[in-house]
Design goal:
Elements lengths: L2 H20 L9 H30 L5
Helix pairs in contact: 1-2
Length: 66
């Protein structure tokens, strides 16, 4: 990922976190929107981790030991 992509992702995550903080209903529980937002963020984190693992594994496998 480039620096600009990381900055855009960081800004998006901050905005989503702010919306999640505001998503509590009057009884203090989470709204459906907050639960869905949490699930989306968890899926994005898993996707990012999978991409990182794949890239590191590919790079490690390309190293010759001779």
């Amino acid at each position: 990922m480039s620096w600009i992509e990381l900055q855009a992702l960081h800004l998006t995550l901050r905005l989503l976190a702010a919306r999640a903080a505001d998503a509590r209903d009057e009884r203090g529980g989470l709204t459906t929107e907050a639960v869905i937002l949490t699930a989306v963020l968890a899926a994005l984190a898993l996707g990012a981790a999978a991409i990182i693992v794949a890239k590191v594994t590919a790079k490690a496998n390309s190293i010759t030991l001779e």
